[in-house]
Task: inverse folding
């Protein structure tokens, strides 16, 4: 079973992303994956990613997360990037500002793994304590370790 750590590498985490709009935030988070060997066709990956930018909000949180994803054969195995925005951004069709962005690239054959990872992120961010834990992280590796601990609790 694939876990967050399997898809998310430290070089694909940005802990202080400053952006002016949602499109820029998604593009800059996706850009963290540009040189990843798991992305076989960058143009197709980005095209698919832009078509699927769902935002989720937990009732108990004052912010949301955005999880753009691409289920495509332009990706050879699951890849993920993550960004913590310096200032939450208002996204269309999202009632609360977005604080975190997770871009996912998933091969067509890994649909079940995608659902598990996306579901894990949604459950992690349903807990209001998640923001305190992730906001306190100072390094990329610490951010990933915090996500691992939060994932293990669900």
Result:
């Amino acid at each position: 079973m694939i876990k967050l750590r399997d898809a998310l590498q430290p070089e694909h985490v940005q802990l202080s992303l400053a952006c002016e709009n949602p499109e820029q935030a998604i593009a800059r988070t996706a850009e963290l994956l540009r040189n990843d060997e798991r992305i076989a066709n960058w143009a197709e990956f980005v095209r698919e990613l832009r078509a699927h930018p769902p935002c989720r909000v937990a009732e108990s949180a004052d912010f949301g997360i955005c999880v753009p994803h691409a289920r495509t054969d332009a990706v050879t195995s699951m890849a993920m990037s993550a960004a913590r925005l310096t200032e939450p951004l208002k996204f269309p069709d999202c009632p609360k500002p977005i604080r975190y962005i997770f871009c996912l690239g998933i091969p067509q054959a890994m649909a079940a793994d995608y659902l598990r990872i996306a579901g894990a992120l949604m459950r992690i961010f349903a807990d209001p304590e998640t923001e305190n834990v992730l906001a306190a992280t100072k390094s990329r590796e610490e951010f990933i370790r915090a996500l691992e601990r939060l994932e293990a609790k669900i």
Notes: Helices lie at 4-7, 22-31, 42-51, 111-126, 129-135, 140-153.
